[in-house]
Amino acid sequence: DQxxxxxxxxxxxxxxxxxxxxxxxxxxxxxxxxLAQKLRERHELANAxxxxxxxxxxxxxxxxxxxxxxxxxxxxxxEPRNLATRALLELQVGALxxxxxxxEQLLDPxxxxxxxxxxxxxxxxxxxxxxxxxxxxxxxxxxxxxxxxALAATKMPPFMHLYGRIGLAFVAVQRTxxxxxxxxxxxxxxxxxxxxMMAGIAVDRVLGLLAATLGQEEKAxxxxxxxxxxxxxxNYRPEYAWAASDxxxxxxxxxxxxxxxRAHELHDEALATARSxxxxxLAERIVAHSAAS
Length: 293
What we know:
Layout: H1 2-19, H2 22-39, H3 42-59, H4 62-75, H5 80-92, H6 96-106, H7 109-112, H8 117-134, H9 140-151, H10 158-175, H11 178-188, E1 195-196, E2 201-202, H12 203-213, H13 217-234, H14 237-254, H15 259-276, H16 280-292
Antiparallel strand pairs: 1-2
Helix pairs in contact: 1-2, 1-3, 2-3, 3-4, 4-5, 5-6, 5-8, 8-9, 8-10, 9-10, 10-11, 10-12, 11-12, 12-13, 12-14, 13-14, 14-15, 15-16
């Protein structure tokens, strides 16, 4: 039953990404793509290509991720998850015009009033993530409003709930909103030791940033150490660079004995990874933070 297998393959692919077994995930996703091609299922082929693209982006293989994203967008040009993740990919590598073009398609005023729950969660998660990359936080109010509206829905799959929480978490961090940070920390704590697949984020990095916002120094350190260990083991190189950079910033802010040396080591590691992956905005951010310290 190839149709059932095609759909079923998506789930171990998702689980593999969540627990950090990306090679296994990619094998299942590739099989789903091959089955969708045989069956000529337009929607399912678009989905399978999109899932595969996310997995390659986790490793920083931007070219393969782009190719799969393009293939999926060719089949479903308005897919909100694909537009959101593709925008973030382009922003990560400094292709700001391309990233903005994909975000504008998602924000098209002609579709805003008819946003589905899926579109709301894509908006809620990725606008604050984009702001974290670019430093432009002018859409954070929209992200928060959209997240809160989506989370108010009475029925939703549990995993979608996390995407709304991602957006609110980054809003809390960007604006040092302790009340909002405490709410998101409580929501994410049970997910520690995993990654959020579509967003490509280690949950412990989110928890570490939230704990730092709350002034909980030991928790922040522990979570960020765990994020670095997870992303290194899983070979999620872009997320490793962000986790190392964020941890260095937290250490410099806390300023305990030995923190400066450790922070500089982490900044060096993050910068080397960011440059090897052509993540220009992050590299520039690290250089600026290093100079300021």
